[in-house]
Design brief:
Layout lengths: L6 H12 L3 H17 L12 E3 L7 E7 L1 H4 L10 H13 L3 E5 L10 H11 L3 E5 L2 H5 L4 H17 L3 E5 L14 H22 L3 E3 L1 H11 L1 H4 L9 H18 L16 H5 L5 H9 L1
Parallel strand pairs: 2-3, 2-4, 4-5, 5-6
Antiparallel strand pairs: 1-3
Length: 290
């Protein structure tokens, strides 16, 4: 998701773009400092488990994974739990043929960093590509319009070689509990705004957007102990499994496996997620400071 060094940038972005008072800026900066202390350090950072999955000797579907730490799978305790592996195995089962997984994603990437990733991917001519990007754009203070435009350019490059593209849009930073309110609410607002811009841009570029924030945030909020890893910041194996669950269908669609597929309105919610009441902090900030 986002790098620890960038938490303070969320507060400064709010000050620059949101018209917040000096006292509130100080509060947000202090909350960023406390969040850095509260967030743990991961013991395992696994290398990308690239290769052919369900190999039967046949011609594999070529799957490329690009983006940031959520695309990489930072936070899992075993490589088999990484989203690329989960999706490669599931895609192979749906296709009835092997899938070759190639990971170009780099933890900490912003949309600007997609350019060299797409350069490398295009040389390998993938048939299907998954991009997960956006959280670091929020915390690095990149404008939503510029971020969405850059993303669209990279989607078009992949589409130009005949590659089907699915984009998991910016996750909801309001689900990260070590970030206290109201800083967490501000992160929520900016991530939602970016995800909306990404959705429009990706569709116009010929890709299929998947709103990770809208689809996953209720479960991450309600079951944070299960859905986040030990650092309380990146998803856990259960969190990545949930993400893979909403990404598989559109990947099958762009791979030509599920003709006529249409996106469901929302995934099945747990009882804990259904019991959650919406926070009033975002509405308070909207009314008081914008």
């Amino acid at each position: 998701m986002i790098g620890l060094r960038t938490l303070r940038a969320v507060a400064m972005t709010a000050a620059t773009l949101g018209g917040l008072s000096g006292a509130l800026v100080g509060l947000l900066t202090e909350q960023g400092r406390r969040a850095r202390v509260a967030i743990g350090v991961l013991e395992h950072l696994w290398p990308a488990p690239d290769g052919v999955y369900l190999d039967d000797g046949g011609d594999p579907v070529r799957l490329a994974v690009l983006g940031d730490s959520m695309a990489v799978g930072v936070g899992v305790t075993h490589p088999s739990q990484m989203p690329g592996v989960l999706l490669a195995e599931a895609l192979a089962e749906e296709a009835g043929r092997p899938v070759r997984l190639s990971t170009y994603a780099v933890s900490g990437s912003t949309t600007r960093d997609l350019v060299p990733q797409v350069d490398a991917a295009v040389r390998d001519a993938p048939q299907v590509a998954l991009i997960i990007i956006g959280a670091n754009d929020v915390t690095s203070r990149m404008g939503t319009a510029a971020s969405a435009r850059l993303l669209a350019e990279q989607v078009r490059r992949l589409r130009a070689i005949g590659c089907g593209v699915v984009v998991g849009t910016c996750p909801d930073l309001g689900t990260v509990r070590p970030i206290a309110q109201p800083l967490r609410a501000i992160g929520h607002r900016y991530s939602v705004r970016l995800a909306a811009a990404q959705t429009v841009a990706v569709r116009q570029a010929g890709g299929v957007p998947v709103s990770l924030g809208n689809l996953l945030a209720p479960e991450f909020m309600a079951r944070h102990a299960d859905m986040f890893s030990s650092d309380r910041f990146h998803p856990s194996a259960a969190g990545y499994e949930a993400a893979a669950g909403v990404l598989l269908a559109p990947l099958c669609q762009v791979a030509g496996l599920w003709a006529g597929w249409s996106s469901p309105s929302a995934p099945i919610r747990s009882a804990a997620a259904l019991a959650m009441r919406p926070s009033r902090v975002s509405a308070w900030l909207q009314k008081r400071h914008v």
